């Protein structure tokens, strides 16, 4: 967090994304002058498409049978939109705005896809994880419980929100299922595979009992998910039972960690393995902390040298101003609506503005989501949001200092930051899912394959970078933590992310069961995922629990085989 200050390459990446954002906006404005209608989904369109999903699917079949972009544009204007997620009608933009030059439309959508991936990941890392970390410290949670609850939620936020949007947004639940399964396959096969191959020369062993525990529990989750897919329906009680399996997992992890810690305290001469049982977070020993601090000091000195070398390039006030302006479109809206109270990023004007504008944003989103209410009701909601915002702003102005964040009454601040981080993550996930579904219609590819590949890869790249860096730089303990995270993370995403989505979807249909969208290849993906887990369960103990090329190569072969078969089966056929 806060890497924008010292990483020039990361800064260049942010500048590219902001330029992409500006280019997309400029291209949209230029093309917008050729037509009078504004391609944003109205509330009535969203609610209508959510209510009459069956009739909308028939309209979309007619839409797909049209060849001319003018005919498709006319159909989109006269019928309900085929895509109900998000606030932007991407199909309308592509066929009605960029119909005469589709290449520009493809470029704009690709750049916008990168911007959305960045927004989703950056919001999770800079705001969401910061709030969770502060909450865990405030609540004085043990490292084990914090690791398998709050920090797991921070690591899997992208998959959780994508799944929620897919099921709860009136859209296709196949995207949520394929995203969760695609991300789980990528992490447990590709990330573990690359990690094992990268660590093969170091002959590092991982803890056997923790590995067997996580793998067996994950296989149990996969079996339960397979039963759900075979039945193709689920009531609210079954959904709650499936989701509550994660509570069982947390208890098992906590008990095993406690027993290991007691054994370590009774045997002072035993090897230092007591803290390796935490899937996501580990209590690092004091000597490890001192070594890490020395490495951080060396790294910071190198960073200072890099900054000195680059200082000549950014010395001019014009260049600094230009960078600041380029960062504003993606930074300012979130900074003005998400309260932040950490010491490094404290700014009283931003803090007062965020607590003032956050209720206004929530009231606006509420009115847009439930747009079938009367004008007086909408006006009342706006007034309530404005009154709360002004009240919070006045209180924040008179109770905070300019030099440092508040030390007392942190719960309201952290809760507000947590809620607004969720709001922005959910909004971004809505747009991301809506864009992928729209691209599926435009390219003639099933949205489920885009969820299995593009969305799953985009959400899981952070896990690959984080776990690989931790394993390469953290020694034996870092490798253990990274390896355990590759299984605990997907368990959390499947049980909590997918489970919560199923609970919400089943609750909306109660007492009738919710029907699971029939994708003929979902069970195939589950089977390949199980094969990868079984491969690791068989190979790793026989190799003395060493991470090597045999384990990693086999996992990569399983994943490549799964994706190749799925792409061959799905590409070229539209299955909505």
Give an overview in words:
The structure is a single chain. The protein has 576 residues and is an all-alpha fold. It has a domain at 347-403. The protein has 21 helices and 2 strands. The protein has a two-stranded antiparallel sheet. The longest helix has 37 residues, at 102-138. The radius of gyration is 25 Å and the shape is globular. The relative contact order is 0.17. Residues 1-10, 32-58 and 270-315 have low confidence and may be disordered. It is found in: Membrane. GO terms for molecular function: antiporter activity; monoatomic cation transmembrane transporter activity. Belongs to the Ca(2+):cation antiporter (CaCA) (TC 2.A.19) family. Cation/calcium exchanger (CCX) subfamily. One of its GO terms (biological process) is potassium ion transport. It is a multi-pass membrane protein.
Mean residue pLDDT: 74
What structural category arises from helix and sheet content?
mainly alpha
Neighbour order of strands in the largest sheet:
1-2
Strand content: under 5%
The helicity comes to over 70%
Sum up the overall morphology in one term.
globular
Low-confidence stretches: 1-10, 32-58, 270-315
Order of helices and strands: HHHHHHHHHHHEHHHHHHHHEHH
| Oligomeric assembly | single chain
**Largest pleated sheet:** 2 strands, antiparallel
- How many distinct beta strands? 2
InterPro entries: CaCA_antiporter, NaCa_Exmemb, NCX_ion-bd_dom_sf
Keywords: Antiport, Ion transport, Membrane, Potassium, Potassium transport, Sodium, Sodium transport, Transmembrane, Transmembrane helix, Transport
Domain Sodium/calcium exchanger membrane region: 111-254, 414-565
GO molecular function, one term: monoatomic cation transmembrane transporter activity
């Amino acid at each position: 967090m806060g890497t924008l200050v010292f990483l020039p390459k990361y800064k260049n990446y942010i500048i590219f994304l902001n330029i992409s954002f500006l280019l997309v906006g400029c291209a949209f404005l230029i093309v917008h002058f050729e037509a009078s209608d504004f391609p944003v989904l109205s509330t009535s369109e969203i609610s209508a498409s959510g209510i009459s999903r069956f009739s909308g699917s028939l309209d979309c079949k007619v839409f797909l049978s049209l060849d001319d972009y003018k005919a498709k544009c006319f159909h989109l204007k006269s019928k309900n939109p085929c895509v109900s997620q998000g606030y932007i009608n991407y199909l309308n933009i592509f066929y009605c705005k960029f119909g005469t030059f589709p290449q520009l439309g493809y470029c704009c959508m690709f750049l916008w896809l990168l911007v959305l991936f960045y927004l989703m990941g950056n919001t999770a890392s800079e705001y969401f994880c910061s709030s969770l970390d502060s909450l865990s410290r405030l609540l004085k949670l043990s490292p084990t419980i914090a690791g398998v609850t709050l920090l797991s939620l921070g690591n899997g936020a992208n998959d959780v929100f994508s799944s929620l949007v897919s099921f709860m947004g009136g859209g296709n639940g196949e995207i949520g299922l394929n995203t969760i399964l695609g991300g789980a396959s990528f992490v447990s096969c590709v990330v573990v595979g690359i990690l094992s191959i990268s660590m093969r020369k170091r002959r590092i062993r991982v803890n056997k009992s923790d590995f067997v525990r996580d793998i067996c529990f994950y296989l149990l989750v996969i079996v339960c998910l397979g039963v759900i897919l075979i039945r193709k329906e689920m009531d609210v009680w079954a959904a709650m039972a499936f989701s509550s399996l994660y509570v069982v997992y947390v208890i098992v992890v906590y008990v095993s960690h406690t027993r290991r810690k007691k054994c370590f305290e009774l045997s002072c001469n035993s090897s230092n393995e007591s803290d390796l049982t935490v899937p996501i977070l580990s209590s690092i020993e004091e000597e490890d902390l001192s070594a890490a601090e020395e490495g951080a000091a060396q790294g910071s000195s190198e960073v200072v040298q890099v900054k000195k070398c680059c200082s000549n390039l950014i010395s001019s006030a014009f260049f600094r101003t230009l960078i600041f302006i380029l960062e504003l479109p993606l930074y300012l809206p979130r900074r003005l609506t998400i309260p932040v109270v950490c010491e490094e990023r404290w700014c009283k004007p931003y803090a007062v503005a965020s607590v003032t504008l956050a209720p206004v944003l929530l009231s606006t989103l509420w009115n847009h989501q439930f747009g079938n209410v009367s004008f007086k009701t909408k006006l009342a909601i706006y007034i309530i949001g404005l009154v709360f915002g002004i009240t919070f702003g006045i209180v924040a102005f008179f109770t905070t200092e300019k030099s440092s964040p508040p030390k007392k009454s942190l719960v309201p601040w952290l809760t507000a930051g947590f809620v607004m981080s969720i709001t922005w993550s959910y909004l971004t996930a809505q747009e991301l899912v809506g864009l992928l579904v729209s691209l599926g219609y435009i390219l003639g590819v099933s949205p489920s394959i885009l969820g299995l590949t593009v969305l799953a890869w985009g959400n899981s790249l952070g896990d690959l970078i984080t776990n690989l860096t931790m394993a390469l730089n953290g020694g034996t303990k870092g490798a253990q933590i990274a390896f355990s995270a590759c299984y605990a993370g997907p368990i959390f995403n499947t049980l909590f992310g997918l489970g919560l989505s199923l609970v919400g979807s089943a609750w909306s249909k109660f007492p009738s069961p919710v029907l699971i969208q029939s994708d003929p290849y979902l069970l195939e993906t589950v089977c390949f995922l199980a094969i990868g887990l079984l491969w690791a369960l068989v190979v790793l103990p026989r190799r003395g629990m060493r991470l090597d090329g045999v384990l990693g190569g086999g996992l990569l072969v399983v994943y490549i085989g799964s994706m190749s078969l799925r792409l061959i089966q799905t590409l070229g056929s539209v299955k909505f």
